[in-house]
Amino acid sequence: MSSLTSFLPLEGVRVLSLALNLPGPAALLRCRQMGANCLKLEPPAGDPMALYNQPAYAALHEGIAIETADLKTEAGQQQLHAELAKTDVLLTSFRPSALRKLGLDWPALQARHPSLSQVAIVGAPGERAEEPGHDLTYVAESGLVTGTELPPTLYADMGGALLASEAVLTAVLRRGRGGEKTPGIYLEVALNASADWLALPRTWGLTQPTGAVGGAHAGYRVYPCADGRVAVAALEPHFANRLCEAAGVTPPDMMATVTHKALAAWLATRTCAELDAMSRERDVPLLTLAD
To answer: Which of 18, 132, 177, 237 has the most CB atoms in a 10 Å sphere around its CB?
Structure first.
Protein backbone atom coordinates (compact mmCIF):
# COMPACT_ATOMS: atom_id res chain seq x y z
CA MET A 1 0.00 0.00 0.00
CA SER A 2 1.57 3.30 -1.11
CA SER A 3 1.70 6.27 1.20
CA LEU A 4 -0.28 9.42 0.50
CA THR A 5 2.94 11.43 0.15
CA SER A 6 3.98 9.29 -2.83
CA PHE A 7 0.89 10.29 -4.82
CA LEU A 8 1.70 13.15 -7.18
CA PRO A 9 -1.53 14.24 -8.92
CA LEU A 10 0.26 16.65 -11.27
CA GLU A 11 3.03 14.30 -12.32
CA GLY A 12 3.65 14.74 -16.05
CA VAL A 13 1.78 18.09 -16.17
CA ARG A 14 3.65 21.15 -17.44
CA VAL A 15 2.86 24.46 -15.74
CA LEU A 16 4.31 27.73 -16.97
CA SER A 17 4.07 30.80 -14.75
CA LEU A 18 4.44 34.49 -15.48
CA ALA A 19 3.25 35.46 -12.00
CA LEU A 20 5.48 37.53 -9.71
CA ASN A 21 5.64 38.46 -6.01
CA LEU A 22 3.85 36.00 -3.68
CA PRO A 23 0.54 34.39 -4.75
CA GLY A 24 1.71 33.12 -8.15
CA PRO A 25 5.08 31.73 -7.02
CA ALA A 26 3.43 30.14 -3.97
CA ALA A 27 0.86 28.49 -6.25
CA LEU A 28 3.63 27.30 -8.58
CA LEU A 29 5.52 25.84 -5.62
CA ARG A 30 2.39 23.89 -4.62
CA CYS A 31 2.12 22.59 -8.17
CA ARG A 32 5.74 21.45 -8.10
CA GLN A 33 5.14 19.71 -4.78
CA MET A 34 2.27 17.86 -6.48
CA GLY A 35 4.63 16.63 -9.18
CA ALA A 36 4.23 19.23 -11.95
CA ASN A 37 7.06 20.18 -14.27
CA CYS A 38 7.26 23.91 -13.54
CA LEU A 39 8.84 26.72 -15.53
CA LYS A 40 8.73 30.41 -14.66
CA LEU A 41 9.52 33.21 -17.10
CA GLU A 42 10.70 36.38 -15.38
CA PRO A 43 11.16 39.84 -16.91
CA PRO A 44 14.71 41.19 -17.30
CA ALA A 45 14.37 43.08 -13.99
CA GLY A 46 13.50 39.83 -12.23
CA ASP A 47 10.88 39.14 -9.58
CA PRO A 48 10.56 42.02 -7.07
CA MET A 49 10.56 39.51 -4.19
CA ALA A 50 14.14 38.59 -5.04
CA LEU A 51 15.03 42.18 -4.18
CA TYR A 52 13.08 42.68 -0.95
CA ASN A 53 13.29 39.17 0.54
CA GLN A 54 15.85 36.81 -1.00
CA PRO A 55 15.24 33.96 1.48
CA ALA A 56 11.52 33.94 0.68
CA TYR A 57 12.27 34.07 -3.05
CA ALA A 58 14.67 31.13 -2.75
CA ALA A 59 12.19 29.04 -0.77
CA LEU A 60 9.35 29.75 -3.21
CA HIS A 61 11.42 28.80 -6.24
CA GLU A 62 13.10 25.65 -5.00
CA GLY A 63 12.98 23.12 -7.80
CA ILE A 64 11.47 25.65 -10.25
CA ALA A 65 13.15 26.24 -13.61
CA ILE A 66 13.54 29.99 -14.19
CA GLU A 67 14.28 31.73 -17.48
CA THR A 68 14.35 35.40 -18.44
CA ALA A 69 12.01 36.63 -21.16
CA ASP A 70 11.12 40.18 -22.16
CA LEU A 71 7.55 39.74 -23.28
CA LYS A 72 7.50 43.27 -24.70
CA THR A 73 9.89 42.16 -27.46
CA GLU A 74 9.38 39.87 -30.43
CA ALA A 75 12.11 37.53 -29.20
CA GLY A 76 10.46 37.28 -25.80
CA GLN A 77 7.09 36.56 -27.37
CA GLN A 78 8.58 33.83 -29.53
CA GLN A 79 10.25 32.30 -26.49
CA LEU A 80 6.97 32.38 -24.56
CA HIS A 81 4.83 30.84 -27.28
CA ALA A 82 7.37 28.12 -27.96
CA GLU A 83 6.98 27.12 -24.31
CA LEU A 84 3.20 27.50 -24.34
CA ALA A 85 2.98 25.06 -27.24
CA LYS A 86 4.14 22.33 -24.84
CA THR A 87 2.43 23.65 -21.69
CA ASP A 88 -0.74 22.35 -20.05
CA VAL A 89 -1.56 25.29 -17.73
CA LEU A 90 -0.45 28.91 -17.81
CA LEU A 91 -0.41 30.78 -14.50
CA THR A 92 -0.68 34.59 -14.60
CA SER A 93 -1.16 37.42 -12.11
CA PHE A 94 -1.54 40.45 -14.40
CA ARG A 95 -4.53 42.71 -14.67
CA PRO A 96 -6.67 41.92 -17.74
CA SER A 97 -5.54 45.10 -19.53
CA ALA A 98 -1.88 44.10 -19.13
CA LEU A 99 -2.60 40.64 -20.53
CA ARG A 100 -4.31 42.17 -23.55
CA LYS A 101 -1.30 44.40 -24.24
CA LEU A 102 0.91 41.32 -24.24
CA GLY A 103 -1.49 39.39 -26.48
CA LEU A 104 -2.22 36.99 -23.64
CA ASP A 105 -5.91 37.59 -23.07
CA TRP A 106 -7.92 34.40 -23.05
CA PRO A 107 -9.47 34.64 -26.57
CA ALA A 108 -6.01 35.18 -28.09
CA LEU A 109 -4.46 32.37 -26.09
CA GLN A 110 -7.28 29.95 -26.88
CA ALA A 111 -7.04 30.69 -30.59
CA ARG A 112 -3.30 30.07 -30.67
CA HIS A 113 -3.07 27.24 -28.13
CA PRO A 114 -6.47 25.46 -28.03
CA SER A 115 -5.48 22.79 -25.48
CA LEU A 116 -3.87 25.27 -23.07
CA SER A 117 -5.67 26.22 -19.85
CA GLN A 118 -5.09 29.47 -17.98
CA VAL A 119 -5.34 30.17 -14.26
CA ALA A 120 -5.47 33.94 -13.83
CA ILE A 121 -4.84 35.35 -10.36
CA VAL A 122 -6.51 38.76 -9.97
CA GLY A 123 -7.22 41.05 -7.03
CA ALA A 124 -10.99 41.01 -7.39
CA PRO A 125 -13.29 39.17 -9.81
CA GLY A 126 -14.91 40.28 -13.03
CA GLU A 127 -15.12 44.00 -13.66
CA ARG A 128 -13.16 44.72 -10.47
CA ALA A 129 -10.08 42.91 -11.78
CA GLU A 130 -8.53 46.22 -12.87
CA GLU A 131 -8.69 47.70 -9.35
CA PRO A 132 -5.35 48.14 -7.58
CA GLY A 133 -4.92 46.31 -4.31
CA HIS A 134 -2.76 44.12 -2.15
CA ASP A 135 -3.21 41.52 0.59
CA LEU A 136 -3.93 44.15 3.24
CA THR A 137 -6.80 45.73 1.32
CA TYR A 138 -8.35 42.34 0.57
CA VAL A 139 -8.26 41.07 4.16
CA ALA A 140 -9.54 44.46 5.39
CA GLU A 141 -12.46 44.21 2.95
CA SER A 142 -13.23 40.76 4.36
CA GLY A 143 -13.36 42.02 7.94
CA LEU A 144 -10.10 40.40 9.03
CA VAL A 145 -8.38 43.64 10.05
CA THR A 146 -9.93 44.52 13.40
CA GLY A 147 -7.59 47.28 14.60
CA THR A 148 -4.53 49.17 13.41
CA GLU A 149 -2.11 46.24 13.74
CA LEU A 150 -1.07 44.46 10.56
CA PRO A 151 -2.27 40.86 10.21
CA PRO A 152 0.41 38.36 11.26
CA THR A 153 0.62 36.81 7.78
CA LEU A 154 -0.53 37.42 4.21
CA TYR A 155 -3.83 35.58 4.33
CA ALA A 156 -5.27 36.60 0.96
CA ASP A 157 -2.05 35.92 -0.93
CA MET A 158 -1.42 32.50 0.60
CA GLY A 159 -5.09 31.54 0.47
CA GLY A 160 -5.17 32.67 -3.15
CA ALA A 161 -2.14 30.51 -3.89
CA LEU A 162 -3.98 27.46 -2.58
CA LEU A 163 -7.05 28.31 -4.66
CA ALA A 164 -4.84 28.80 -7.73
CA SER A 165 -3.16 25.41 -7.30
CA GLU A 166 -6.64 23.94 -6.83
CA ALA A 167 -7.65 25.58 -10.11
CA VAL A 168 -4.66 23.97 -11.85
CA LEU A 169 -5.88 20.60 -10.57
CA THR A 170 -9.38 21.41 -11.85
CA ALA A 171 -8.08 22.20 -15.33
CA VAL A 172 -6.01 19.02 -15.44
CA LEU A 173 -8.88 16.83 -14.18
CA ARG A 174 -11.23 18.27 -16.77
CA ARG A 175 -8.80 17.56 -19.58
CA GLY A 176 -8.15 14.07 -18.23
CA ARG A 177 -11.84 13.25 -18.37
CA GLY A 178 -12.35 14.68 -21.84
CA GLY A 179 -9.24 13.38 -23.57
CA GLU A 180 -6.24 15.11 -25.13
CA LYS A 181 -8.39 17.01 -27.64
CA THR A 182 -10.44 18.68 -24.91
CA PRO A 183 -10.12 22.48 -25.22
CA GLY A 184 -8.41 24.28 -22.40
CA ILE A 185 -10.37 26.37 -19.90
CA TYR A 186 -9.95 29.76 -18.28
CA LEU A 187 -10.19 29.91 -14.48
CA GLU A 188 -10.03 33.15 -12.50
CA VAL A 189 -8.82 33.21 -8.90
CA ALA A 190 -9.58 36.42 -6.98
CA LEU A 191 -7.50 37.24 -3.92
CA ASN A 192 -10.37 39.03 -2.22
CA ALA A 193 -12.45 35.88 -2.69
CA SER A 194 -9.74 33.87 -0.93
CA ALA A 195 -9.90 36.36 1.95
CA ASP A 196 -13.70 36.02 2.01
CA TRP A 197 -13.31 32.24 2.26
CA LEU A 198 -10.88 32.54 5.17
CA ALA A 199 -13.20 35.05 6.82
CA LEU A 200 -16.26 32.78 6.81
CA PRO A 201 -15.84 31.66 10.46
CA ARG A 202 -15.90 35.32 11.46
CA THR A 203 -18.86 36.02 9.17
CA TRP A 204 -20.73 33.17 10.87
CA GLY A 205 -19.93 34.67 14.27
CA LEU A 206 -17.59 31.90 15.38
CA THR A 207 -14.59 34.20 15.88
CA GLN A 208 -16.48 37.31 16.93
CA PRO A 209 -15.92 38.33 20.59
CA THR A 210 -19.27 36.73 21.43
CA GLY A 211 -18.36 33.49 19.64
CA ALA A 212 -17.06 30.35 21.31
CA VAL A 213 -13.73 30.53 19.47
CA GLY A 214 -13.60 34.33 19.53
CA GLY A 215 -13.06 34.71 23.28
CA ALA A 216 -16.44 33.99 24.84
CA HIS A 217 -15.49 30.43 25.83
CA ALA A 218 -13.07 30.43 28.76
CA GLY A 219 -11.40 27.28 27.50
CA TYR A 220 -10.45 28.77 24.14
CA ARG A 221 -8.24 31.76 24.79
CA VAL A 222 -4.67 32.94 25.15
CA TYR A 223 -3.79 33.69 28.79
CA PRO A 224 -0.70 35.08 30.51
CA CYS A 225 1.11 32.52 32.65
CA ALA A 226 3.96 32.90 35.15
CA ASP A 227 6.75 32.99 32.54
CA GLY A 228 4.99 33.51 29.23
CA ARG A 229 1.66 32.81 27.58
CA VAL A 230 -0.50 29.77 27.08
CA ALA A 231 -2.85 29.11 24.17
CA VAL A 232 -5.67 27.03 25.64
CA ALA A 233 -7.93 25.08 23.26
CA ALA A 234 -10.10 23.13 25.71
CA LEU A 235 -13.26 23.66 23.68
CA GLU A 236 -15.03 20.30 23.95
CA PRO A 237 -16.76 19.61 27.31
CA HIS A 238 -14.41 16.78 28.31
CA PHE A 239 -11.35 18.95 27.71
CA ALA A 240 -12.95 21.92 29.50
CA ASN A 241 -13.85 19.74 32.48
CA ARG A 242 -10.29 18.45 32.80
CA LEU A 243 -8.88 21.97 32.66
CA CYS A 244 -11.31 23.23 35.25
CA GLU A 245 -10.61 20.26 37.52
CA ALA A 246 -6.90 21.09 37.40
CA ALA A 247 -7.68 24.73 38.21
CA GLY A 248 -10.20 23.89 40.93
CA VAL A 249 -13.05 25.60 39.09
CA THR A 250 -16.38 23.86 39.68
CA PRO A 251 -18.91 23.63 38.29
CA PRO A 252 -17.44 24.81 34.97
CA ASP A 253 -19.67 27.26 33.08
CA MET A 254 -17.23 28.08 30.30
CA MET A 255 -19.18 31.12 29.08
CA ALA A 256 -19.39 32.76 32.53
CA THR A 257 -17.24 35.73 33.48
CA VAL A 258 -16.41 34.10 36.81
CA THR A 259 -14.91 31.10 35.01
CA HIS A 260 -12.80 33.36 32.81
CA LYS A 261 -11.47 35.17 35.86
CA ALA A 262 -10.81 31.98 37.84
CA LEU A 263 -8.91 30.32 35.02
CA ALA A 264 -6.95 33.50 34.30
CA ALA A 265 -5.95 33.78 37.96
CA TRP A 266 -4.87 30.13 38.16
CA LEU A 267 -2.96 30.12 34.88
CA ALA A 268 -1.11 33.30 35.88
CA THR A 269 0.52 31.41 38.76
CA ARG A 270 1.68 28.42 36.67
CA THR A 271 4.89 28.19 34.66
CA CYS A 272 5.07 26.91 31.12
CA ALA A 273 6.70 23.72 32.38
CA GLU A 274 3.94 23.15 34.92
CA LEU A 275 1.24 23.70 32.34
CA ASP A 276 2.96 21.39 29.85
CA ALA A 277 3.05 18.68 32.52
CA MET A 278 -0.62 19.22 33.35
CA SER A 279 -1.49 19.02 29.66
CA ARG A 280 0.26 15.69 29.27
CA GLU A 281 -1.15 14.26 32.49
CA ARG A 282 -4.76 15.29 31.92
CA ASP A 283 -4.83 15.24 28.10
CA VAL A 284 -5.76 18.94 27.79
CA PRO A 285 -4.99 20.69 24.45
CA LEU A 286 -2.79 23.73 25.05
CA LEU A 287 0.46 25.25 23.88
CA THR A 288 2.80 27.25 26.08
CA LEU A 289 4.76 30.20 24.69
CA ALA A 290 7.69 31.14 26.89
CA ASP A 291 8.80 34.78 27.00
So the answer is: 18
